[in-house]
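Example 9 (inverse folding). The structure is encoded as follows.
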């Protein structure tokens, strides 16, 4: 038994040394000290002609590294699914129900349209101004928290959230597949770039950002609903 432990330790040490050697060899191939700004310069100067987004960060997030953004949305979907699976056993039990005052209820009714409007504005205009689908979706989901804080009897339309989440994810994937069909590359733009700086510009980016905003908002709203209602009853 002791010999087996020594074998494991020696094997682990050998693997660590091998990985360290491979990492060192990779680092030696990197030309440290050379000017690497050509990548940033390409994004800054070529992006308006290639992508057409006034917000260069958006062009990078959705277009140049679109696979990474798809991965982030997938991670959020897995997290929402995990919360639903963990809390699905206890149904329809609201955690810490509280009776609020008329001031809180009135404030929630007044703020709800404004919060939704700000969230929609942020992810619809993500290709023009700082923002995008992720922060816009979070703001939209925060409107659900307002309603839960204000109204003890409030229950989110869980089935509608599921439907919106599925449609938004399907739109993202369809836009990516269209790029494969037309140009042979996933998330390659197939829409006209439009006029630079206008709402209808930047090709597929507004479509993808609306889909991301809807998906993020519905998934976060679903997580909030599941945590407050302990899985929630089926609506």
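The amino acid assigned to each position is listed next.
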């Amino acid at each position: 038994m002791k010999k087996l432990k020594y074998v494991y330790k020696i094997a682990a040490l050998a693997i660590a040394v091998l990985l360290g050697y491979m990492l060192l060899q990779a680092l030696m191939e990197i030309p440290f000290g050379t000017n690497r700004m050509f990548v940033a310069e390409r994004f800054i100067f070529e992006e308006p002609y290639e992508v057409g987004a006034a917000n260069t960060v958006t062009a990078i997030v959705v277009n140049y590294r679109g696979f990474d953004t798809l991965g982030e949305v997938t991670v959020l979907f897995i997290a929402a699914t995990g919360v639903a699976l963990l809390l699905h056993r206890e149904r329809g039990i609201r955690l810490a129900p509280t009776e609020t005052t008329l001031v809180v209820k009135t404030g929630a009714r007044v703020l709800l349209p404004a919060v939704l409007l700000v969230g929609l504005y942020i992810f619809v205009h993500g290709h023009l101004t700082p923002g995008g689908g992720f922060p816009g979706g979070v703001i939209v989901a925060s409107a659900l928290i307002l309603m839960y804080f204000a109204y003890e009897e409030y229950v989110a339309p869980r089935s509608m959230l599921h439907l919106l989440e599925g449609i938004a994810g399907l739109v993202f994937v369809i836009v990516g597949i269209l790029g494969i069909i037309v140009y042979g590359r996933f998330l390659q733009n197939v829409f006209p770039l439009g006029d630079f700086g206008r709402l209808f510009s930047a090709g597929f980016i507004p479509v993808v950002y609306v889909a991301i905003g809807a998906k993020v908002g519905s998934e976060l709203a679903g997580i909030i609903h599941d945590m407050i209602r302990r899985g929630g009853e089926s609506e």
